Structure formats: C-alpha cells, structure tokens
Amino acid sequence: MKPGDLAPAFSAPDQVGAERSLHEFLQRGPVVLFFYPAALTKGCTAESCHFRDLASEFDAFGAQRVGISMDHIAKQAEFAATNNLDYPLLSDPDGEIARAYGVKRALDLLRTKRSTFVINTDGRIVAVINSELSMNKHADDALAALATL
Asked: With 70 as the cut, is the pLDDT of residue 108 above it?
C-alpha cells in the first residue's frame, strides 16, 4: 500500500464487540489506522498511549484514531481498560485485514508489521508510516500528514 492507493474496506469488532467498518469511520473524518503487533506489550503500549495523549491534536483535524491487531476482543478490551485508551481497538484474529494492507508477517511470532495508514475521507491513503523502533513516530507523522489535507 502506498499514498494514492484506495484503502481496502474492512469490518471488524472493536474491544466491546461492536462491529465497526472503515466506511463508518470515514463518515466522521479522516482515519488514522495503526497496526500493532500485540496488545499489552511494552512497545505497543507506548505507541497506543502516545496516540491517546495526542487526542486533542487529532480532534483538531477531525481525525479518527483506530488501532488494530490480531488480538482477540477480550485482550483488546483489557488493553483499552488498562491504558485508558479512548479510541476503538479492532480485533483481526485471522490477519485478514493485515493481509489486505500488506502488513501481515509470514511468521506469526510478531504477527504484523508496526504500520500506520492515514486515510482521507475519499478512502485514499495519504501517508504510510513504518517504524519498528520509534513508538512516537506513528502518531507524530500521522499528525504531519493530516496537516497537509
């Protein structure tokens, strides 16, 4: 996936079991969809909390923050509650959405690549952010991409 591509449509349950879709999110503004390898791990917690801490900056752009991993709903719920995450965490246990976005790893040990997609309301990808080492880069670069819209 690269800027200019049409983002693959998806539907998946969030941490409370409610079915959510890309179409639904895009009705309310741009979407920042970030894939993380595993809930409740050190790096994923740091990344997710950074997205949480920048809520007002994302709100200023009308952007929806959406986290997604291959964790099951119960683990996503625990992750959200433990860290007071104020945005949806989607469950993609079979990796179908990760595959559609090109971030599913061949080996399930780390499950997915840590990747973020900024998606404009027309469904086009504006930016793709990849970093396995900088947990703040994803939210910071997503905000920079939103500023260009």
From this structure: no
Burial of 58-77, coded b for 16+ CB within 10 Å and e otherwise, reads beebebbbbbbbbbebebbb
Q: At what angle do helices 137-146 and 42-53 cross, to 10 degrees?
A: 30
Q: In the numeric block, which tokens belong to residue 110? A: 């780390």
E-strand spans in the chain? Answer: 11-13, 19-21, 31-35, 64-69, 89-91, 115-119, 125-130
Confidence (pTM)? 0.95
Q: Active-site residues: which are they?
A: 44
Q: Using the structure block, give the residue that is written with the tokens 């404009």.
A: 120
Amino acid letter for position 82 = T
| pLDDT tens sequence across 8-66 | 999 999 999 999 999 999 999 999 999 999 999 999 999 999 999 999 999 999 999 99
Distance of CA 123 to the CA centre of its chain: 15
Terminal CA-to-CA distance of the chain, rounded, Å? 19
